[in-house]
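Supplementary Data S3. Sequence and structure tokens for construct A.
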Amino acid sequence: MLDAKARPAATLRTPDWYKSATRWTQLTLAEDDPVRFDPALWIDIFKRTQSNATCLSAGGYIAYYPSKVPLHYVSKYLGDTDPFGTLVEGARRLNMHVMARVDPHAIHQDAADAHPEWIAVDKDGNKRRHWAYPEVWVTCAYGDYNAQFMPHVLEEIARDYDIDAIFANRWQGHGVCYCESCRTRFRAFSGHDLPIVADANDPVWQAWTAWRRTVLTRLVVDWDETVKAVKPHASFIPNMGGASLMEFDLSLIEKHCPFLVVDDQGRRGTEPIWMSGRNGKRMRATFPERPVILITSIGPEEVPRWKDSVTSGPEIQSWIVDGAAQGMLPWFTKFNGVVPDKRWVEPVTDAFALHADLEPVLSAMTPTAEIALLDPATTLRHWAPEHRREAEMDELGFYHALIEAGLPFECLSDQVLTPDQLNRFKVVVLANAACLSDAQCAALTAYVERGGSIVAANETSLRDENGRPRDEFGLADVLGVRLKAPPRGPIKNTYVALSGDHPVASGYDGAERIIGGTQVIAVEADVGAEIPFLYVPDFPDLPMEEVYVRGEATEPAVIARQVTGGGRTVHIPWNIGRTFWEVLAPDHGRLIANAVRWALGGPGRVTIDGLGVFDLSLRENEGGLALAMVNLTNPMMMKGPTRAFHPAGPQRLTIALPEGRRVAAARLLVAGTDVPVREEQGRVLLEVPGIELIEVVHLVWA
């Protein structure tokens, strides 16, 4: 039997089933698995990992059960077996929840011959062969294949098998499809022909992203209704990727998706481990109460796509644990039911066991922070998915700077800028929210008038929600600036000079200037604003004999204001976030941290003193507080895979106590030991002796 911690509560086959589905095993079968894999091995893995839910390959591109739906391709190795049904029965014997996986992104030749309109078409009018397996065809996600054919598959699976949900992977399409159906329907929607180039500033591209969002949202609703018509307690659950819900109508997602699944299976290239937890922050920025699951691959997530491989154990554990520390439920995926390399099993088992141990405390608490980093969905949705990471660079730089500064923070979606959401935070950081509507700007202005603070940078509010340039910053009044000239760049060899002794410019002893940005915006500061940094006039980077300053630094490069309502604003009119992300110059990290700390107007809720880099997550409820500290200190922190854990030494913490609270007990949940504390001036002081991968400080109020 499963350990009690892994056994679902009395929610089996009820609409609340997902509330006890907190650790997931996914098995994605290969076509020859029916004659090669051992189902009993996987039932044992369910037990070892304390998984209480599973996602299993069912159909779509290939059916792993004897499907009767015409043109639904059944594995040629199936014979008289039913691997999907066998795994479902095994999981149900363990009282596990079960979700069936479908993948509708490709079809075989027989379906293509019968329905050529199901095939996606490229911009040259050619039907799209699969880019990795040219023997099959890529489907159009926006037409009849998904709208008419796939509901029959979903209905059959829901009718014939004991499942709680159907999960779809690669259901959202692969860019613009130029088939006749898409051409006709997009023209009826927008009056335009389909866009040829993914240009965030092109009104036609913006119209296509809006049309796609409408089509995909409708698809979620239709598929969910199809599943519920057969099994009322069940749901259709779309794979959300890492898109922060920007591609969907939020009201319909709220109604039809009881939980959210993020497919960000591991880091790539020089991404840091905190990318895992970032997914959780971004999802709850829109739906703070909704469970979010993070899919983790056991193999490396690099461009060559070694999908049936194994990465290092510490890498797997770090990705799972950082996501869990930021509130994401763990889900691991294995491609291919055969297991020639078992080195992943123990790391997954250990990470899942750690989640099971921490879950009772952390799941009873609500994430909290004084600082919010705005998730600029209004801006990012104008970008094609393949270009979105470039558009996120400013935000990623601010995210990393806050991590290094030891400042706990949450994300706040610009799609839900209500007073209740904004008032949760003392400071809202807008790294480069270029596109903001008048209503969004008004909400942020009212927030500052109520006493909130803002740190804004680069092109924030220079465009409206449709991407059209403004003649003035939408937040000009609240930031105390006026636009003198539009953004200029890319440029080289730029600098900003320190000006005065403002706290935002502290910590640069010995320096008169620091590196500037690669894109700058000329602004004029309102009367009464303070100017901690000034632009140094441009000068050449070659010939070397010409590399010298020609004039005085007089134009504002950082503007700081104290606002009548009690809040503070800082405006940095250049791309400091992107520059920090690309260069990692410590001066930029310091400037970002200084700006946020000054905007807070006092010491933060948590301070940490000790060597190391940590991803912090603060949670609390009426009974206490928990601070999760994921140790990112590692020579492979920004280039994976992590080879081993590098324990951090002692960390001295102070944590502000809620008014009227005293500490009755303090415990390190991972170490399993009590820790002495003392209270001084409304703060609790304690020391964590050391951290290998994660420690959770749990304070219980008297």
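Construct B, processed identically:
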Amino acid sequence: MIRVKDFLKNYKSTFAALILFTFLQTLGTLYIPTLKAAIVNNGVLRGNISYIAKVGAIMLLTSVLTGGITVWITRMSADASARISRDIRQAVFEKVQLFSVNDFNKIGTASMITRATSDVTLIGDTTIMFIIMLLPAPIMAIGGLCLAFLKDKVLAMIIVTTMIIFLIIALLMGKKVIPLFKQVQIKMDSINGLFRETVIGVRVIRAFNREKYEKSRVDAASSAYAENAVRINKMIAILEPIAMIIINGGIICILWIGGIRAGAGVMQIGDIMAMIEYCFLILIFLIIGVMIFMYIPRAQACAERIDEILAINPEIIDGAVIEPEKGENAHLQFEHVTFQYPNAEEPILSDITFQSKAGEITAIIGGTGSGKSTIANLILRFFEVQGGCIKIDGVDIRKLPQKVLRNKVGYVPQKNFLFSGTVAENIRYGMEDATQAQIEHAAQVAQAHYFIMGLDQQYESYVAQGGNNLSGGQKQRLAIARAIIRKPEFYIFDDSFSALDFKTDAKLRQALRNEIKNATVVMVAQRINTIMDADQIIVLEDGKIAGIGKHKELMKSCEVYKQIAASQLREDEMA
């Protein structure tokens, strides 16, 4: 099973190089105070100008080299961070593509978006901060203390004391801050979920004048997030002045005791200056390191949330059969299929058996909640059946790779979702290499060509995300054109004509007849006049088949169908 930490292993050589150069950078930074002390002790106090020039040149060269190494570390860290984020995000995306609808529901859409964006970004940012800011802290502390003890043990103990005081305060503060960090991403999920719901449902919100209510929900979620963030920032803000007090207190002690020791001839002025810089560098790097260290639990929480996605075993597993052999009789078969949604009290479909041959239109009709759309979803294997099997060309679809199965299908969903882009791009979504002529032909069959030509940019006109700048009927026709352009073996129309007027509906069905004459068609419908000429009509009631046959046969034999017809047709149409 892949975990977030596994992605870091792919960059072992990069991290090894960064650790090496961070060590060199730290040594360079620590070497400068030593050179400065030498200039004061052996140059300034003795009036040796040549020595000052010589050591000053070495100090300048050290500064330039250290600066160059710092730039290289920053660039390589940023590159490694970006690559790790890319790898994790790509792995999450690829894993999510294998999920069934039930698998999606385990995480939730809002949380999935947060994890794939905010969480991954935070992991990448923490990686670069760890290398640039946290990694040098222990190296600086150990190296600085070694040099300090070489200069003067008494003053070195002052530095050690200030370090201990600061670390105790940071530890006490960390116990309060770290739990708050772990809650931040969870609260961000809530905000993202509400924003997504508010944007998608803006028309319903306005229609019912519920703007104030939705605002109160968003405000409540945002306030909970802000409360956490403010508490964290307050604690971190307190840490900074405390740290500066400790640093300045340490420097005062070094100047005081160092002055006494210099007066006694135990140490030199330049060594006191070096000790002050060692103290300042060690504590500054410790402060930065502690602050970054506090972010690690948040990154760890993000990693655990991403691990949760990567650890999910997809409900639907690809089969091994590459391509089924085409049968002579039935292209699509349902054999005693039973399906129940998770946490449902009873199956939505029970013992469903029927077959549909090539060139036939099989219509499915029934009341709300009877399982019509579920049948369409099961054919595409968005869900896995619990009983029985579904066969395509004589092969159980569970034995087929999902890509092979879905390449055979042209699907028009109940909710006609379009993608941001042009009209042509949305139709071409059904066939990536479609020509303009093929796009226009599909649009003509779907009765979409006329309204497209009336748009400002025609086929290059912009479509907003979800198709929100088009009417329901226009979106529906583009979705139909997207399925037609594939020229698949199977068509699934899930209540795909409900937004069309009767005239457009009749024209579209007539044009479709010629286009899909060699394909197997499953048509889920609410309106009887849409399916009256179907080759067979399956009537569902409470998840079971109440009748199968043509329109006239069902009008005589199926009471459920007659009731539906009576609610939709005039008496002369029923006759």
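The chain has a mean pLDDT of 82. The longest strand covers residues 332-339.
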